[in-house]
Every structure is written in C-alpha cells, then in structure tokens.
Specification:
three-stranded antiparallel sheet; single chain; about 20% strand; about 500 residues; 16 helices
C-alpha cells in the first residue's frame, strides 16, 4: 500500500472537524437510524483503539422555549440514541428539570430554559488520530508520502487505471507509482480526481463549510460541553478543552477555493450570536476570539436539500477505468469506511485478506489492553515526571497526545538537560524532536497546526518558541538562510490567519 498526500497528512478536512467522535444525535431528526447505529457503535471501537486521544466527554443538551427539541422528544431521542449506539450503562442519558439544568450549567439563561439532558460523547484530536493511524499503517508495511501530489493517472492500453504520476513537492521531482488498484479518498478533492479520470458523472459532491471559534476559557467557563439550538434549525457545540473553549460549527454551501477555506466575519458573528443567546452572561465579542479554523465537508449532493439537510452517509463510486472513489461519511465512521474499501479491493483482486482486524487493533500510542492499563500507564508517567523535574500537567498533555509514545518525548527532554530558565523551551523541543523523528514533519505548520494544535489551543506560550524551533528545524534538514527565513515567515503568517477574517 502506498499513500500519497499533496500537503501534510490531515491538512484538509481531517484536521478541521469539531474534534468529536460522536454518534450524530441530530441525524435522528432526519430518521437516519442506520447511520446513528453505525457511527454510534463505532464510537466505542475508536475509543478502545485510541484511548489516549478519544476521551469521554459529558455533554449537556439544554431544552429551551422555541427550540427544535421539546422535553419529550429530547428524552425519547436520547434514549433512542443510547439504544441504537449501544451506549454502556454508566454513560446513558439523564434527563434534568430546568433547575437541575441551570445548576449543571450556571451560564445558561433561565427565562427560556425548560430542562436538559446529560449524555456522553467523545472528544478527540482529529489530526492526531490521522497521524497515529498513519504510523500504524507504516508499522504494517505501508509506504507513506506527504508533500507528494498525485498529478495525473497512468492507464494501460485498455483504458484501465494502473498508476499515478506523483510530484515530490520537497524537491520538484516527478515519478510514477504503479498499482493494481487505486483509491481516491481525497475528501473535498474527490471530484477533481474523478474529473481527471473523465468519470465525473452521476453522483457528485456538494461541499459545505464548517467554522469553529476558540475563546480563552475564562471568557466561556462551561462546566461541561454543550450541544444547543441556534434558532434556525441548526445545533452547535461548545467544548471546553484545557485553557480554552471552542464553539462550532456552521454549515454553509461552499463553492470557492478548496485549498484555503477561511472563517469570514459573517461566520464569526453567527456563532457569537448563537453563544451569547444561549449563555447571555458571557457577552462575547469579536475581539475575544483567540483563534479559528474552517473546514469543508465532502457531502453527496441531493437535489432540493439545504447544506444542513444533506446526508452524512458515505458513498463509494467505481469508474469504468477502475478508479475507486469514496466520499461523504463522518470522522467517527472512518474505520468502517476503510473496511468497506478494503473489502471491495479484496473482491476486485479476487484475494481473500481474511477477517478485518482493525476493529480490535490498537493504533500507535493507544496500546492499552484495558481501561485499567490506561490509568496505570498514566500514573507511571506521572511518577516518572517527579524524578525528571517535569510538570505533571505537561506529562498529562503529552500523554493525551502521544499515549505510550510519551516515553520517547520524556527521553528527549532529559537529553536536553535544561536549566530552570529553559524548561518551557525544552518542553517544546522535546515534542518537536519526537515529531521530526517519528511523524514526518517538514514545516513548522506541520507541528504547530496538525501534530499539536498549539496554533489554536496554546497560542501565547507556543508563539514564544517559534524562532527557536525554526532554528532546530533548519539544523535537522540543513536548510540555508533563505529556506529557514521562508519557513519562519510562513508560520508567522499562519498564526495571523488563525485570527484574521475574510
């Protein structure tokens, strides 16, 4: 297996989601029971296979006057959700009256509050999920190439697809990869490759944009995550995460540049209005926004349906040339989608690969046999931190990012032998050196945006280390002054763009 990605791994939709492994409660309203069942049960699989980056998160569903969900429908919906998704007993829904709901979340406005429901979803780091899967694929023999763009297809005399021409963007060279089967799993770019294959007919994509805003936690001090009505039929999430709270998402038809979706001022004001309406005490303003990101959903177009009404089901399309394309779907169902594709490839090659193993395969960093083993591992790392003069909070941050691989980050920190004034610098360097050695980073944005998310969730602290890490990167890859300065300029621009609106 060879995987080629024209930019960095997860640089498209896969790093721009709401960062939740969730069952899609709102799809019950669309009567998509199978979708809720499939992704709901898959939540437990993804949690088991990647415990360090898929974390149970208590979620509050406020029920308000003029909301899209009433008390009875919410109770029934959450019950159906628990049953369809096979939710374990201790995480099943609990219905609250208006006073208990206000107590659970004091920031809620009381006047229009009817009650609420508490249930569980799973918070994740989407781009970490991608890179840990990629590392696991590599460990099983896959060839992985980032910054390698598939430019066009190679065909045999009978018009069957047999390979791709790839441009290595790091040194501007081209080469061909030949393969018995080619899968187009390019998210928003799926139809561009189908067009290149002259097979863009029948079903096609409808891209929709989703925007998220990040606020300092002190500005939006939620006691748990919330999922609430906007008032126009949409629902949005507000999720506390360490020192920030992020809010999203929008859902608007998108027909602009696929490579660089941006948050507009209109997007930001829409989300601000929704949050301020549900939590009237917070009075958030544009200047309170610490960062933002925008991503594109590659949905299947359906005549007469709005962006929010389009199904999130995945679809597989096979062209006359043999190109296999997959689009749609949800982050939660990624493993199930991959299983379908491999089953199809197996059938096409007339080869029995045996029963799918990924349902019980713990991915890189998540090699824990049980919840008890997970807790024991964290405790051992925390004990180790005392001997190495590492902050317990930093150990937890690393553990919930790298899992069992945290020991390698700790080894890097110890080898740096920092004095008391260099601790913060050494924390950053320890992670950075690990990512260079094990996670194929070529640019600072790979580290700050996708491997760690620091550009969104830890801006002030990480921004101080940019120049130091740029020097480290330049040393690692023997970059000249011009290349080094180019990298520095690029990451500074990325930091600006995270708070600039179109």
């Amino acid at each position: 297996v060879a995987l080629v990605e024209k930019n960095d791994f997860a640089s498209g939709t896969s790093s721009r989601s709401t960062k939740l492994i969730h069952g899609g409660l709102r799809y019950l309203k669309q009567l998509e029971f199978k979708l809720v069942h499939d992704v709901g049960t898959e939540r437990a699989v993804v949690h088991r296979n990647a415990r360090h980056i898929v974390i149970p998160e208590k979620m509050l569903l406020p029920i308000v006057v003029d909301g899209s969900l009433g008390k009875q429908s919410s109770s029934f919906g959450l019950l159906a959700y628990d049953l369809l998704a096979g939710v374990k007993k201790e995480e099943r829904r609990k219905m609250l009256d208006r006073h208990a709901t206000k107590k659970a979340e004091p920031l809620l406005g009381f006047d229009k509050l009817l009650g609420g429901g508490l249930y569980f979803e799973y918070r994740t780091d989407d781009s970490r999920l991608v890179i840990e899967n990629a590392k696991s694929a590599f460990a099983n023999g896959a060839l992985l190439l980032n910054y390698a763009e598939a430019k066009n297809f190679v065909y045999d005399d009978g018009g069957q697809i047999i390979g791709v021409t790839v441009m290595d963007k790091t040194n501007d060279t081209q080469f061909e990869i030949h393969s018995k089967t080619i899968v187009n799993a390019c998210g928003p770019w799926v139809d561009l490759l189908r067009k290149e294959d002259n097979s863009l007919k029948g079903k096609r994509l409808q891209l929709t944009k989703g925007v998220h805003l990040v606020f300092p936690y002190k500005k939006l001090q939620l006691r748990q995550a919330a999922y609430f009505d906007v008032g126009d039929g949409r629902m949005i999430f507000a999720v506390p995460r360490n020192q920030i709270t992020y809010v999203g998402t929008t859902d608007t038809v998108y027909n602009q540049d696929i490579d660089s979706p941006r948050c507009s001022k209109e997007d930001a004001e829409y989300l601000l209005a929704a949050v301020n309406k549900m939590f009237p005490e917070v009075k958030l303003k544009l200047e309170d926004i610490e960062s933002s990101w925008a991503g594109l959903r590659p949905l299947i177009y359906e005549e007469g349906k709005s962006a929010s009404e389009l199904s999130r089901k995945d679809e597989i399309m096979v062209s006359d040339s043999g190109l296999i394309s997959i689009a749609g779907g949800k982050l939660t169902g990624y493993r199930l989608m991959a299983e379908k594709i491999v089953d199809l490839v197996s059938k096409k090659l007339n080869h029995d690969f045996g029963k799918c193993k990924t349902k019980t395969y713990t991915i890189s960093g998540g090699e824990f046999e049980s919840e008890e083993a997970f807790e024991k591992s964290l405790k051992q790392f925390l004990q180790q931190s005392k001997a190495q003069n590492i902050s317990p909070d930093k150990i937890k941050e690393w553990f919930f990012r790298y899992g069992t691989n945290t020991n390698k980050v700790i080894e890097n920190f110890v080898s740096l032998k920092p004095n008391s004034t260099e601790i913060e610098k050494a924390y950053e360097a320890a992670e950075f050196i690990y990512c260079v050695a094990h996670e194929m980073i070529f640019h600072l944005s790979d580290f700050f945006i996708r491997r760690t998310g620091k550009i969104f969730f830890d801006r002030k602290n990480s921004e101080k280390q940019i120049e130091y890490l740029n020097d480290l990167l330049s040393q690692q890859f023997a970059l000249n002054d011009i290349e080094s300065e180019k990298n520095l300029t690029a990451i500074k621009e990325d930091y600006k763009l995270a708070v600039a609106f179109q």
